[in-house]
């Protein structure tokens, strides 16, 4: 292993600037001549716009412009799009209402964008926004997921009768129904997957600049995928041709999915900076983030499992209603369909699965991917159902899982729901987790807790996820509008240092360190001489960005492939310089050596020769700079078992997590310190969903949980420290042997926590978030 | 935030003078509730008169069985005060659990009491200990000070100068926090001196109040189980997404029991 | 408008501000000290924590005029001649940060915790006293570790 190479917990290269206040986040940027944008938002969940009078606002101090949807349409700026198609059961594509970045004639959720005020200062923009007079015709609101498609509900979009976006069945219904008919036992469960607000700590922001000389727009954005933003804004919104639009995602303060999407505000800023021919800056405040960031989850489901007399799963049937909000966000349709139903097999060899997903529109903020995206919803449903199955069969939750796990010798394993898992050893992770959690000793601990008046419970969650998102062919078949490969460029400079350009984007994941480790391992260049560059469409080649735990599993491989090309080229250069045959050159630890001799040349010298090719192989291009793209054959399938132990105070309903053990299979770890940090963060995101975070609208469509005063974010005193370990297997499809780790905790944790609470109280189920009041109510009937 | 005229004054007399001259003036103490409210444009005073420069409003002293806390004394100062810790430890403990450390470094007892947020902590102690609120005009008993949600007996040009807390033989404050805001969903301050038990309840209803039924039960039998039989009127309880009225009524009893246990 | 003067990171600074200008706005917009962040509008997230006269405050919940004449320390003022403050170093050594957005406030609060509780502060106290700082990335595990390590280094 190279020093600071693969497997080393290298301290992060990016930390120094963050720790000294020298990060450069979008809102830190101020441009000469800058104006400020503030959005007039709908206070109503559902209303026609009869008239907008902007004259008083236009006359207010410092106002540069007040723009509405009509202005946007007049300039030919296209509506926001959803990039993934889902075919409904009537054979038609999903219903896609027009989503103008500024409302045209109607608003459909509280926070919807009515107009934008651009002024010299932010306070002037805010003051003037209050002077925009909007005449609304208020309509009844639809907010409830379960009943949104019922007959008699107010219709939100003409193109979507019954507020239905799609109804998407998958699987062999007849075969599944038959298996249920003849089953020994059927367990069933109704559950809700609570709506969450993603809440990266940095709110969204945009700074747009227009250069009238070059006719180029530069848009600094809080983005997880600068090239995807550029592509969509060019190809679909007609903001500017791709080569005249530069998107820069500088330091970004967390994403978790919410900064993937193309939003109204960012598009409007890009358009407005050209229209007023002044730089325009917009920064969301937290209230706006609650109102208008895409939310996550929000499912209502009914799940059933058919079993034989041994508790073997013979068939599963799932009926789900997913709330997509008022409009389709960029990848909204994909989340409750392909990223959800195709994960319903979990770690089990259930041979038959039938799923029906109904996606509905409501007068709430759009819903899209949020850390895990579909996979947490699938895992929560399945892992809760498995615990109910165990109870119904009188089996220990660990035992029923063992009986149904896909055996280690069955890989590659074709599930009945499209996915073909490439690798895994689910028993290994379970066994290790049981040991780590001291599962055997639980009964004693529960006894002791009881003597103190507390109910103690333990919960297991064995998850599998599909990530490393790609492959292009697979997502294309499924209806995605883009390919999902990744790109890299590894460039030596003549002085021997290295710049690595990646199409992924780091917003907390530590790519600047992990990717540098890959390069130092492969090329032997000291890590301090390697710089990883990302997030600027004018610097880096096209790339697809960061989400779905894909950066290392896809983007990392592209980097490795570019390094391989450099080594191949370097061998030719070294062979020439060392007067040997190319076939005799060996490369290791940064040195090209003639096999069996001490004739050697460092890669930095080779790079110099490539740029100063005075004596150089004939016909070989100068330069030491290689590109590579990687499009994997399959998703990667991280998996693991998480075990949560809780203590419930029956008098108050307060749940304390007393112990949490996680054993994950991420394949090979490049930087164990960073991976462990990702696990911790994911777990707490999942604990937040399970115990604290529940986004609520009232029946008028007002967001009740619109600030941290009412939306409970997990804080340091809500959680313990964690016990984390690994049970890796090698994914044969991935050249680096890696699987991805960014979402695992958020997927594994919610069912582990709820299984533990259900166990503590001896109840079948409790919905998330398991707030103190709900737990207290459940405890009144508890059998513990 | 709407604009306003800011004035820093160095005496209570100047403060009163300034507020009389203002169209719609407001005193600001620590500003930990007022500034967020103004940032959301939910309040728009013409003048903000900062009491932070008035030295006579600061400081803690003990005189016999009375702890006097100047109105502009911060929560952090009360929490860290050896005088308060030595005389009424429950009060120091209460102050040390208001908000978070940074809020405690700015927020003041006078500001908290004058604001009378239904979920604030201090009102429970004022009522439970039977404190006296001293203003530039008069002294007001704790029981008479809190008149309704965000309402107090203070007049527009009246400034709290200090709060006088009588020592109790034993006292304790138990708070059940809102998981989001960390304000009190229910907070109960129990104080016992001789045979007299006083209970101050915050968070549960529109305004902090004395728990007279609880006091009655505890006066005869200062034990947690004495609370079991008390009926808490559910219809008077606040109800929101974090806690229904029924749950709050239950929590009043649980927090009272825990406070009683902590007293002994 | 008012003129405010204060010592910021040991240097005298002054500027013209509106009465309604928040301390964080003065620091970020006028002094260009953009290490102090704004993550919420209800005084809860703690991304804006700085020290005023030696103690932690939320600079989004204090007017610039209220800091007039005071001593303000921001994240930019902690390192000494390029050497990280022991708490900054501990956050780096213990991977106590990911996206870096909450980090400045977290570090300022961490130092305040150690100043008040000493270098042998226990885990429960650290977790309780980080109540006013929200992090979405780290799950707090490594932040708590970092605060302990930083506390030891500060005490040493």
- Per CATH, what is the topology of the largest domain in chain B? Uridine Diphospho-n-acetylenolpyruvylglucosamine Reductase, domain 3
Number of helices of chain B: 11
Q: Indicate how many domains the architecture of chain B comprises.
A: 3
CATH homologous superfamily (4th level) name of the largest domain in chain C: Beta-grasp domain
CATH class of the largest domain in chain C: Alpha Beta
Described by strand count, sense and barrel closure, the largest sheet of chain C is: 5 strands, mixed
| Overall number of structural domains of chain C | 2
| Alpha-carbon distance between the two ends of chain C | 46 Å
What low-confidence regions of chain C span 5 or more consecutive residues with pLDDT below 50?
Answer: none
Give the H and E element order of chain B.
Answer: EHEHEEEHHHHHHEEHEEEEEEEHH
**CATH fold category name of the largest domain in chain C:** Ubiquitin-like (UB roll)
Question: If strands are numbered along the chain, what order do they take across the biggest sheet of chain C?
Answer: 2-1-5-3-4
Tally of DSSP helical segments of chain C:
5
Mean pLDDT of chain B: 96
Which radius of gyration of chain B do the C-alpha atoms yield?
18 Å
Structural class of chain C: alpha+beta
Helix content of chain B: 25-40%
The most extensive interface between chains reads: A-C, 58 and 57 residues
């Amino acid at each position: 292993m190279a020093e600071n190479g693969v497997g080393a917990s290298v301290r992060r290269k990016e930390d120094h600037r963050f720790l000294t206040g020298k990060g450069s986040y979008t809102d830190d940027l101020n441009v000469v001549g800058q104006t400020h944008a503030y959005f007039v938002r709908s206070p109503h969940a559902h209303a026609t716009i009869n008239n907008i009078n902007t004259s008083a606002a236009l006359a207010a101090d410092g106002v540069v412009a007040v723009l509405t949807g009509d202005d946007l349409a007049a300039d030919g700026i296209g509506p926001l799009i959803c990039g993934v198609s889902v075919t409904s059961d009537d054979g038609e594509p999903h219903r896609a209402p027009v989503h103008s970045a500024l409302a045209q004639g109607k608003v459909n959720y509280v926070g919807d964008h009515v107009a934008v005020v651009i002024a010299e200062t932010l306070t002037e923009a805010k003051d003037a926004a209050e002077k925009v007079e909007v005449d609304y015709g208020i309509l009844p609101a639809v907010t409830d997921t379960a009943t949104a498609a019922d007959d008699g509900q107010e219709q939100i979009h003409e193109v979507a009768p019954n507020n239905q976006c799609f109804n998407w069945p998958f699987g062999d219904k007849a075969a599944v129904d038959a298996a249920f008919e003849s089953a020994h036992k059927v367990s069933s469960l109704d559950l809700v997957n609570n709506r969450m607000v993603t809440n990266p700590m940095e709110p969204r922001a945009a700074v747009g600049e227009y250069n009238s000389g070059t006719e180029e727009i530069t848009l600094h954005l809080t983005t997880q995928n600068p090239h995807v933003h550029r592509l969509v804004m060019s190809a679909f919104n007609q903001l500017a041709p791709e080569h005249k639009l530069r998107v820069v995602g500088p330091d970004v303060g967390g994403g978790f999915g919410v900064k993937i999407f193309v939003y109204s505000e960012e598009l409007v800023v890009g358009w407005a900076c050209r229209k007023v021919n002044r730089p325009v800056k917009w920064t969301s405040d937290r209230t706006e983030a609650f109102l208008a960031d895409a939310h996550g989850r929000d499912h209502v489901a009914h799940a059933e499992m058919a079993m034989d007399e041994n508790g073997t799963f013979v068939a599963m049937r799932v009926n789900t209603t997913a709330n997509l909000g008022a409009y389709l966000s960029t990848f909204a349709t994909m989340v409750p369909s392909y990223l959800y139903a195709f994960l319903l097999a979990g770690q089990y060899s259930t041979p038959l699965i039938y799923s029906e997903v109904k996606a509905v529109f409501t007068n709430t903020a759009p819903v899209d991917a949020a850390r895990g995206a579909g996979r947490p919803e699938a895992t929560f449903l399945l892992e809760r159902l498995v615990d109910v199955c165990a109870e119904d069969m009188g089996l220990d939750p660990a035992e029923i899982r063992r009986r149904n796990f896909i055996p280690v010798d069955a890989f590659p394993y074709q599930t009945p729901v499209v996915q073909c898992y490439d690798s895994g050893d689910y028993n290994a992770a379970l066994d290790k987790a049981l040991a780590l959690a001291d599962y055997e000793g639980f009964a004693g601990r529960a006894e002791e807790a009881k003597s103190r008046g507390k109910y103690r419970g333990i919960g297991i969650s064995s998850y599998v996820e599909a990530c490393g998102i790609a492959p292009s062919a697979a997502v294309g078949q499924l209806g995605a509008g883009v390919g999902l490969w990744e790109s890299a460029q590894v460039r030596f400079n003549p002085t021997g240092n290295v710049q690595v350009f990646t199409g992924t984007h780091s917003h907390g994941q530590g790519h600047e360190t992990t990717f540098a480790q890959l390069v130092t391992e492969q090329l032997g260049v000291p890590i301090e001489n390697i710089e990883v560059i990302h997030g600027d469409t004018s610097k880096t080649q096209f790339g697809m960005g960061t989400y779905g735990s894909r950066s290392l599993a896809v983007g990392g491989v592209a980097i490795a492939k570019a390094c391989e090309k450099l080594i191949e080229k370097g061998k030719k250069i070294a062979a020439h310089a060392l007067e040997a045959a190319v076939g005799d050159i060996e490369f290791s630890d940064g040195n090209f050596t003639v096999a069996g001799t001490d004739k050697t040349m460092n890669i930095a010298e080779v790079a110099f020769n490539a740029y100063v090719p005075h004596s150089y192989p004939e016909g070989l291009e100068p330069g030491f700079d290689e590109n590579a793209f990687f499009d994997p054959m399959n998703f990667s399938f991280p998996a693991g078992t998480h075990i949560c132990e809780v203590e419930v105070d029956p008098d108050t309903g307060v749940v304390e997590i007393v112990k949490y053990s996680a054993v994950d299979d991420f394949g090979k770890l490049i930087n164990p310190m960073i991976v462990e940090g990702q696990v911790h963060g994911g777990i707490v995101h999942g604990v937040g969903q399970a115990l604290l975070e529940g986004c609520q609208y009232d029946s008028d469509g007002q967001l009740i949980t619109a600030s941290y005063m009412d939306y409970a974010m997990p804080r340091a005193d809500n959680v313990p420290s964690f016990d984390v370990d690994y049970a890796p297997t090698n994914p044969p499809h991935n050249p680096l042997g890696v699987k991805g780790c960014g979402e695992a905790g958020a997927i594994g944790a919610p069912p582990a926590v709820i299984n533990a609470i259900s166990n503590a109280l001896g109840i079948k189920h409790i919905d998330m978030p398991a707030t103190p009041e709900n737990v207290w109510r459940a405890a009144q009937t508890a059998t513990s | 935030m709407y604009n306003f005229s800011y004035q820093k004054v160095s005496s209570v007399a100047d403060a009163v003078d300034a507020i009389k001259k203002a169209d719609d003036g407001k005193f600001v103490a620590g500003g930990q509730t007022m500034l967020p409210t103004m940032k959301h444009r939910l309040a728009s005073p013409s003048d903000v008169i900062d009491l932070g420069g008035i030295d006579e409003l600061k400081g803690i002293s003990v005189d016999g069985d009375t702890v006097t806390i100047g109105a502009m004394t911060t929560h952090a100062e009360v929490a860290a005060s050896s005088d308060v810790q030595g005389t009424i430890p429950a009060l120091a403990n209460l102050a040390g659990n208001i908000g978070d450390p940074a809020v405690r470094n700015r927020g003041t007892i006078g500001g908290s009491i004058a604001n009378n947020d239904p979920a604030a902590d201090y009102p429970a102690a004022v009522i439970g200990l039977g404190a006296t609120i001293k203003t530039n005009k008069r002294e007001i008993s704790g029981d008479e000070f809190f008149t309704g949600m965000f309402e107090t007996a203070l007049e527009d040009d009246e400034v709290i100068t200090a709060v006088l807390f009588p020592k109790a033989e034993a006292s304790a404050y138990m708070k059940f926090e809102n998981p989001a805001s960390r304000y009190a969903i229910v907070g109960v301050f129990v104080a016992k001196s001789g045979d007299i038990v006083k209970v101050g309840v915050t968070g549960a209803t529109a305004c902090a109040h004395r728990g007279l039924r609880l006091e009655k039960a505890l006066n005869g039998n200062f034990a947690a189980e004495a609370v079991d039989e008390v009926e808490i009127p559910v219809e008077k309880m606040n109800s929101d997404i974090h806690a229904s009225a029924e749950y709050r009524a239950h929590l009043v009893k649980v927090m009272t029991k825990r406070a009683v246990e902590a007293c002994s | 408008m008012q003129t405010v003067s204060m010592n910021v990171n040991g240097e005298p600074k002054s500027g013209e501000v509106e009465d309604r200008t928040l301390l964080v706005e003065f620091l970020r917009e006028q002094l260009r000290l953009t290490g102090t962040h704004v993550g919420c509008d209800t005084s809860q997230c703690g991304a804006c924590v700085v020290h005023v006269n030696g103690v932690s405050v939320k600079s989004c919940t204090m007017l610039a005029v209220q800091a007039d004449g005071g001593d303000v320390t921001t994240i930019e003022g902690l390192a000494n001649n390029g050497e990280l403050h022991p708490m900054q170093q501990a956050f780096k050594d213990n991977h106590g940060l990911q996206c870096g957005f909450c980090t400045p406030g977290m570090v300022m609060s961490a130092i305040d915790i150690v100043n008040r509780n000493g270098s042998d502060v226990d885990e429960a106290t650290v977790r309780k006293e980080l109540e006013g700082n929200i992090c979405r990335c780290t799950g707090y595990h490594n932040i708590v570790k970092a605060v302990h390590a930083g506390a030891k280094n500060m005490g040493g």
